[in-house]
Give the backbone structure.
Amino acid sequence: MSGSGDRLRDEFEACFGGLAAIGQDPAGGWTRLAWTDEDRDARSWFESEAGARGLAVEQDPAGNLWAWWPGPGEPDAGDVVATGSHLDTVRRGGAYDGALGVVSGLVAVGDLIARGVEPRRPVAVVAFADEEGGRFGIPTFGSRVLAAALDPADLLERVDEDGTSLSEALAAAGIDLAGFGPDPALVGRLGAFVELHVEQGLGLVDLGQPVGLASGMWPHGRWRLTLTGEANHAGTTRLADRHDPMLGLAAAVLAARAAASELNAVATIGRVEVDPNSSNSVPGQVAAWLDARAEQDQTLDWLVTAFQTAVEEAAGRNGLTAELTSESRSPGVAFDPDLTARLYASLRAAGLEPAALPTAAGHDAGALAAAVPTAMLFVRNPTGTSHSPAESAPLEDCLTGVWALASVIEDLACH
Ligand SMILES: [Zn+2]
């Protein structure tokens, strides 16, 4: 790292610390669900950090925030080099998922400006809205609406756990519902999008490298399983007379695990709702959410079919009805080979040995990849843990990530 290393370190720590102060959950970790007060505070933080670096912030019609580097590259001229990630988190998530990409983008662009670099193309740092889908169950919402990969009209009546609809939440956050939707002109101006993200596994730890490149993203989806039986007294209802949906849930959890294990995939039931959720009642209904990911779309289909078959058998044995509905599905993504090759060359020239890693996580970069040449940079995560307060990235690796991102933006925007 050059003599600007100390300044970069101070900038990074101040910038990252500012965002990490927002949405600290009293129960541990960070909770910044989309369109909440914490999300609003994070979006205000983004505007002020961008402003402090001389970047002009605009909101697109899908609610995403864009910080533009004014100068020789005009935002309307096309061929934009964009970087960024998201500000929202899952419930009680970690400090780095999303945040690291936004902070690194701001610090990297700020560093290029401070060094007097003059881009020949417009440069932007973007903070995508509602990437996690932690409130309304629709991941990469902002980036997919922007790229016209989702029709918001189908989704605006979705409700969160408190019964607030997505349209009400957007309106409360000051989003113009009349103009809400895609922006093909903006997407058409993007010449490259590079998302930096904390790695959500141990690939870079195993390789002993601080940063790496994403080769592609696994297809993934979410399904809602509703098991309906009959609520009854936990003491007086004979076992033979019960229609207990919890037994169906137990079978579903084991079926998800078995199918994922056989298919070299992953499947998770991490959220359930039990009705009436009473300790001395046989429940009447259980809803559970299946998150499943596999290397190939076809394998993912097999997994879900195997899961459904096992659940229906368990429902039949226990006198239940089972309904499985798809809530979201994202196809597999291969990142742009030319852009990724250029990143690889740029990082090699900077003395790094970036490895290519596939990812089973969803990202805004994946949502944009169909429309824009897109690539991803990962930063090493020593715990390999994500969506948890244990998520981590050493400061030195974060700074290597910022430095790599600045090199890449300079290469793309100045040549
Ligand atoms: Zn993320």
